[in-house]
Hints:
By secondary structure, chain A is mainly alpha-helical. Chain A contains 13 helices and no strands.
Amino acid sequence: MILTSFRLPGEFGGLAPLYILPDKANTDSGLTIETYQFFFSDFIYVEVFLKSFAVAIFTTIICITLAYPLALLIARSPRKFRNLMIMLVVLPFASNFLIRIYAWMIILGPESALSHIINSTLAFFDIAPVTLLFSPFAVLIAMIYVHLPFMILPLYTNLEKHDPILLDAAQDLGANAWQRFWYVTWPQSLPGIFSGSALVFVPVLGMFAIPDILGGTGDIMIGNLIKDQFLGTRDWPFGATLSIMLTLAVLSITGLFSWFARPAGKFA
Amino acid sequence: MQRRMTTLWIVSILIYAFLYIPLIVVVVFSFNNSKLNAEWVGFTLHWYQTLFHNHEMLLAARNSLIIAISASTLATLLGTMAGLAIHRYKLKVLPILAFTPVAMPEILLGVSLLLFFLQVLNMTLGMFSIIIAHTTFCIGFVAIIVRARLQGMDDLIFEAARDLGATPWQTFYHVTLPLIRPAIIAGALMSFTLSIDDFVITFFTKGVGEPILPIQIYTMIKVAITPEVNAVSTLLMLLTLTLIIVATRFDTSVLRSESK
Amino acid sequence: MVLIEIRNVTKRFGDFIAVDNVSIEIKAGEFFTILGPSGCGKTTLLRMIAGFDAPDSGQILLEGKDIIDVPPEKRPFHTVFQSYALFPHMTVADNIGFPLKMAGKARHEIMTLVTKALEEVELSQFGNRYPHELSGGQKQRVAFARGLINQPRLLLLDEPLGALDEKLRENMQRELINLQAEAGVTFIYITHAQNEALALSHRIAIMNRGKIEQVDEPARIYNFPMNRFVADFIGKINMLDASVIEVSTFHLKLRVAGLGEITVPAKACIKINDQGVLAVRPEQIRIAPETSEIHSELQFMGKIKGFFYIGDVTTYNIELPNNTWIEALLPNSEPGHAKLFDIGDTVVVSWQEQSAQFLPN
């Protein structure tokens, strides 16, 4: 019984794409290579992949920049406040994923207060009004919003473990505030940054709902392509090919991050 | 140092604002007496009334509840056993198997489940396939929570129980089970929340049958934005919030018995 | 009467032999200590007696009956773990009553016995507390009470005082002696702290690399160590390389390079030309000013090279004529003086014949 409980996830999900999908690609199209050739023959698909990577990279970098000060503040707050402050980070993340995307539809909508402010400012400088919703900007901001806690949590877990004596020692040895951060805090926090980056990068790469709801027609990502193949055009072999490409991308990214995190991990 | 903390505080408050303002906007506009989510007109409960007369929506909510309860029950049962086994036998391979669904992008899990149901099992998609799909991705979470709880404990207490005259079953019933109970409850609540909130995997495994809550919301968002969405969102938030508070109740009791 | 007999027990973990052909007999009512450095196999031995691990070969006999196949819960032994292993989700009273509950005792009977046990360990007001609300010493006493409540034949103690601080440990040592005497239960005590073993035990087994080096009473272990390991492990001892040149009924004559011939008490199984060391405890060495009169023929001139003031005593490092250094320990009986000799002083070093011994390599 216990054994089956383990076998379930393995059979159903996780590793399944690795063996089920190639098989699919074979039986349905007759030629495995064909779908892959198709992928590379049309630059649009490669472009979507590259664009997805760009979105994932930007989201990750912005998440690091936003998460760091907050994680640092929580880690350096009195112990009794820390749990509450972390709770406040996690709480919005517990509300429904669609609701969080929907919230940005309201905020970025053409009738919203934000749109009015931005467009009247632009009008003041004689610049044509912009549409915030259904744009790459909307996609990026929602991506950051949805994934920010994934960066804050591992970063905080890492920063919280730092020994404050090290900062005193650095100060004693003549390091100013900036030097203390750059030479003591930052290098020690790299494992946290890497695990946070993996947690942000991977889901962003496979995301389809955010570009689907908040993006324009040109803002589709890998996830949208896959979804369309399976639920739209019903070209399963090609969808499978795309899934395999995504799986490979995810595996190599995860491998890369854990490889980066390892040497630094020794010091953590 | 003091000035640096002040800067940190200001930045952090802005980030907290970034995290909360969107949700507050949703809640506020759910009480707004206007068809547009643009400016505050006046207070109303109209959108909640329409919501409760929306037959499709009520059906979706009922279905989602059935799925969430079944999936979380199954996942808790299997996940607890998985967590126990991983801990007991110090398994190296099985954690990877059990936790992969947690670490992969949801869309890949959704796609492979879709293929598995249709190609391998040859079954029709519907409530049943969704329940299995949700169970699959919840097992990993439950197992992680249960194992974390076990890892935080001194393994010797299980030997101590045997040493003091308890049979393996007595040890499980009197020592292991009460100790991991908070983790089991937290895992069950978490599975329930995950299941009722899940969109991506439901989207892929739903088939064409009955309406499901997240899918219903998705369709509403795609078709037309009405404050009715705000109302259902607010109610959902209230539900998850309650569950989280209950879960943390158990979680703090976990912390208390662990701290010395 | 022999309660437990460990007969030729061996336990391997892969290529590593944790317990190597160990045989010990433990008498009923005894406070028996297994003493050894960490990793010597003492905990493995204890776990086999408790029933958590099975030996690869050999027997463990309880009053003559082999109990290897008896599961831990069926053995009339209890263990006190170093980490106490109290159940965090049970109150102190429930923890202590656990063995009775498992044995299927009636509720009121459990209550009565637990109340009595709580009184005995002076924790009467703490019955409803949880383990995390107790101090280290209190947890310790709960662990003892739990282990003794249903009068086991044998209590196994795995470094139970290891987690306590120095002061508390000394108090607990005293309590432990009383507890054992009152309960009349046989104790097998595991420790790496030699002073604890000497202070508590009726008999001590010295264990090293999975083997038993010596089993004896504390004073005999200290004064008559069987070999270099035991001598070195228990207390401090000076060792000078020596070879045997003459064996008689009561004496051994040794040659120590640079010091000449030295007589020590006889020892079993020693032959002429055996190599080893001449061993003398620092507190057995006497030092006197250069000018003092000669007491015995067994004496050497030495030079003070350093000293180490501890408070009640001072240790002196002395260089002997053969350029080896030895340590001597002198009590500071004169108030206000940290030392009786100064670096560079020439002194007369001597010891009584019977306080020195030969230890073969």
